[in-house]
Amino acid sequence: MKNSRPVLFAVAFVSLLLLAVALYLQHVENMLPCPLCVIQRYAFAAIALICLLTAFRTEATARIGAALAALTSLAGAGVAGWHIYIKAHPTVSCGIDPLETSLNTIPTAKLLPFLFQADGLCSTAYAPIMGLSIPQWALVWFVVIALFLLHTAFRKKS
């Protein structure tokens, strides 16, 4: 594949789809997002935005965008990993603390509270989806997205 655009569009689509799933879980299934969930939402939104903005540029810029989105995905994977750790160790919490307060004061949280406002606790146990918790699924998707983007960013020119 000579062009990075299809991969960037696919990654943007998947990231936006995952945000739609998060909204479904929040507003239909009443699963309130915790601060770490919201940070992961920001990561998926940033990945989608970077991919869409750079897909329309030159191939060199698209590769840089793929690398930047891959770094964002790896950062999201780190947050998801920490979230998994918190769920495995109930004495550790990120619940109602300065992180939630500061996240809820970011302009995007005020403009789009239905998407970026943290109202839940990180340690809340929800039923697993196909055997994995929500942060585990987020970690899987962050890793898959990062692998595709890294391959796109660093593949040899043909």
What labels would you give this structure?
158 residues; 70% helix; globular
Percent helix among the residues? 55-70%
The main sheet comes to: none
Radius of gyration: 16 Å
Number of helices: 7
Decide which structural class fits the backbone.
mainly alpha
Characterization of this structure:
- By secondary structure, this protein is an all-alpha fold.
- It has seven helices and no strands.
- Helix 1 (5-27) runs antiparallel to helix 2 (35-55) and helix 2 (35-55) packs antiparallel against helix 3 (59-88).
Summary of the model, kept short:
The chain has helices at 5-27, 35-55, 59-88, 98-103, 107-111, 113-116, 134-154. With 158 residues, the protein is mainly α. Helix 1 (5-27) runs antiparallel to helix 2 and helix 2 packs antiparallel against helix 3.
What is the strand and helix layout of this fold?
Blueprint: H1 5-27, H2 35-55, H3 59-88, H4 98-103, H5 107-111, H6 113-116, H7 134-154
Helix pairs in contact: 1-2, 2-3, 3-7
